[in-house]
Amino acid sequence: MAIKVTMPRLSDTMTEGTVATWLKKVGDKVSEGDILAEIETDKATMEFESFNEGTLLHIGIQAGETAPVDSLLAIIGKEGEDISALLAGGDAPAAEAPKADAPAAEAKTETAAPAKAATELPKGVVVVTMPRLSDTMTEGTVASWLKKVGDAVAEGDILAEIETDKATMEFESFNAGTLLYIGIQEGNTAPVDSLLAIIGPAGTDISGIAENYTAGGAATASAPAAEEKTAPAAEKAPEAVAETSNGGRILASPLAKKIASDKGIQLSQVKGSGENGRIVKSDIENFTPSAQAQTSAAAPAAKQEASAPAAPKVFVPAGEVYTEEIKNSQMRKIIAKRLSESLFTAPHYNLVIEVSMDEAMQARAAINSVPDTKVSFNDMVIKACALALKKHPKINSTWKEDAIIINHHVNIGVAVAVEDGLVVPVLKFTDAMSLSQIGGSVRDLAGRAKNKKLGPQEMEGSTFTVSNLGMFGITEFNSIINQPNSAILSVGAIVEKPVVKNGQIVVGNTMMLSLACDHRTIDGATGAQFLQTLKQYIESPVTMLA
After folding, report:
1. DSSP code, position 301
2. Of 179, 110, 190, 100, nearest to 142 (Cα)?
3. Which residues are catalytic?
4. What confidence tens digit (pLDDT) does each residue in 324-347 have?
5. Are 504 and 535 in contact (CB under 8 A)?
């Protein structure tokens, strides 16, 4: 049986649509999901897909034509099927109706007349149906009502929030009056075109309208309102489809055409600011007729100077989606594996402390004044960590299922960024090294790490790790523990800022330290005590010589 396809409502504010192009022609086979046509709405040009399959038997709106929502767009059925009854306005081909059913059909026709009279809408009353808010929407759910029965409704007011198959959208009223009836309660779902609400003058008797509508009176109940809205649109349609002097169609949104028609504006005089010169709503609203156009009009007695304000050029995104696939190196795979294991097996927590760096800066300047000596702040932090670990050996530990291993030797790993990822060369027996020895070893290991000349044995055996991003301006961060270590120290940048010393606000230099601990081996108090000792060493470097 042939099926009517009507102009869909592809946006919440769409009242009419323009067929930009047909992708099927009469006689073509149509499958469910095939794109029938491209339709211009008041917001965009969208592809309209078929929800039925068969043969395209009739096209009701030609390419370039504009028609109201629910106008006959096409008919799909069996090849060679008689569609004369559908074109005449019926619901089924006349040839398919058996002769034996003729008396019954007559009886239905006779009873339809009183039903129509009974359900004729009172003056000013409008039936609002569940809108189609997306091209694939077949039913909607009322998420919430923003108006209740008895509330005054103005044109443009938000009536309800409706959940579609794609999103929750606000549904605005196209009519003014009083909300007289709500047909779908909050949380309920109903098909597109179900009775959603009734709006009309306050106090209007609407008894019987909802019952007749749900019983099959949809066409009858909404006929007066539909006739009112479609008649003016049908009259104005020829004006809305403007053409250029060379026969090409002017690109304009249906809403822009409607406003232009209402204001009597010729689209050929309007410069479009949309994509490919498309005329949009703002172009019509900002349009001021030029002096030349007014002279050529029939009535004006004198020329008037008028200038159309330049509409802002709408940005049209253009470019190419570009991606690049980089195969994971063996180093990257190992980093991912070990850090994932660490984060998801060790219960991490972080302790943060702020350290004054004024004395450390003075001490470093004094040390570096010695010929052939170069010490960094990171070297000083590493030395302080080594000494603090000797005082707090629980930080220098390793978790095993049946025991906790306390390491009384100190091997500090130093995180080094390389081209392919991250490596952690190890300073063996760091507590026995001087500042200058630490500095020289770190520079040597980091240099060979970046040149891929580190041996595996030089990256094994760490008991604690230091990671420093201060040289990049990072003031504070948290690291993932480098297992089998139980802790890692994150070192931030030195920042000059106001500080309080001896009750006075002075300019000072501070640095943030963050200690990530494995809670299986290190309790919070133990980690805090380690940071206090570390702070004392850094703030007073001379104590590292004791």
Report:
1. S
2. 190
3. 519, 523
4. 888 887 778 888 999 999 999 999
5. no
